[in-house]
Each structure stands twice: as C-alpha cells, then as structure tokens.
User: Fold this.
Amino acid sequence: MRYLLSLFIVLSLAAVTMAGYRETFEREFLSKPWAGGPIVEKSACIECHTSDIMKPAFRAIPDEWQGSWHALNGVSCNDCHGGDPKDASMSMSHVRGFVGKPKYEGVPAYCGKCHIGILKNYLESGHGKALKATKKGPNCVTCHGSHGIQRATIDIINEQLCTKCHSYERAKVMKQALFLTEKKMGEIEKDLKALKSEGIFTGDDEKTLFSTQAEFRALFHTVDVSLVKDRTDEFTKRLEGIEKNVQKTFAELKVRKNFSAFLTLIFAGLAVVVAMLSATYKD
Assistant:
C-alpha cells in the first residue's frame, strides 16, 4: 500500500511539473521568434547613404529609417523608392524600378501604393483638395514625416503641427471625436499583449483589432468630424466584441491557474500524508 501511494504521488507531481513546463514552453518559445530577431540583409542603399561621400543631410536618412515604424515592419528603402538594394550598380536603375524621390504633389500617390484606403479618404478631404488645387496643401509627410515615420496615433493631431497651416480649433474637435475609440483600442491591445505573454494564442483577436484600427485610422484622414462621429458606434461595437473575447480568455486563464494551484496543494498534502504513514510504518 505504501509503495502504491508513493508511486501515485510521484506520477501526480510529474503531471503537475509537465503542465508547468508546457505553459513555460508556450510562453517562452511559441510566442517568440526562433532566431531571436529579424535577419538584416546587406543593403547598397544604406551603405551608400552612410558613406563619407554622401552629403550630411542624406547620411541621416538610414538612422531615421531604422528607428521608424516602417523598419520595424520590414519595409525597406526599395519598397518605397524602387531599385535593387542587393546590387550597388543597379540600386538606382530604372530598369529595376527605381523612382527616387517624388515631387511634393506626388507624395500621396507615392505612399498610397500601400496605404490604399487612406489615399482614397485623403484625396476626398480638405487636405487632399487643397493639395490638388494649389500643389501646396498638406501631404502625407507634412504630418507623418518622411523616413522617421512612427506608428500612427491621435497624438499626431497637435497644436504645434496643425497651426503650421490653420488654426487648431477644428483639429481639436476631431481629436476629441477620436479619443475614446483610440483609448479603447489601446486598452485592448495592452490586454492582448498580456495574454500573449502567458502563452495564450491571440491571433484571431489581433487580426480583428488590426483591421479595425486600420479602417478607423483611414477614416479620420477624411478630416470630417461629422463622419467620424456618425461611424463611432460601428467601431465601438467591433471593439466590444474583441473585448468580450479577451475578458473571457482572462477568466479561463484565472480558472486554469487556480485549478493548478489547487492540485499542487492536494498533491503536497498527499505527500505529507504518505511521509507520515511511512514514518509510522517504520516505527
């Protein structure tokens, strides 16, 4: 009897240990890249722009890009400017699609090759119409910069930037209309990161949040406060759906952790009982 109880305890503790190992495996391995980070390929563009023969103003471009949202997401020089970054002799060849720097009025179409939805809304906005009419209105880089582009947030709507072209009052109203929705998206994003750090698969909710963020941020490029307010309820409902899933997952995670702790206490208690029985048997 004593040996059966001892075997039961050993197997039970092994099961708990394996469960803990599985959670650690999911958290530390499945949620992280195998290589520990992206592989940076050699680029003729960067080598040239960081060389001593380059003008100082142009030498700053690689550093600006490397700290940008584009670089973080694998968007390289040639993705925007064309050319062949692997061959210095063809890096600025039109045969390899090199287009270089666009004209000021051509910047929206240039960026719109990737940001299609945003381009459409921008062209229909007061900003886009001003650029088309005067060729001097605000374009993408006016607000976002060129190479050091950071992740888009409503912080880009600020008095210092907006008053370069007009008063801040209308922009302030736009920011207020966006605030609650942006705040909710930020909270959900933070919760998803917390779940992911626990080894929980969040891919489906992350995709839904990303598409919602993209569509919402494309919308406010219309610079139309009334339109943003009219569609706020639509985006709020989408976010509530994601938030419901996230909170459900948190609840399930809590139950699982509590159950694991409960099992650990039971097995620890059984181990004490077996030890006491073993000591009694020897006596």
Observations:
- Residues 1-11, 13-19, 24-39 have pLDDT under 50 and may be disordered.
- The chain has three domains: 44-101, 103-150, 164-283.
- The radius of gyration is 28 Å.
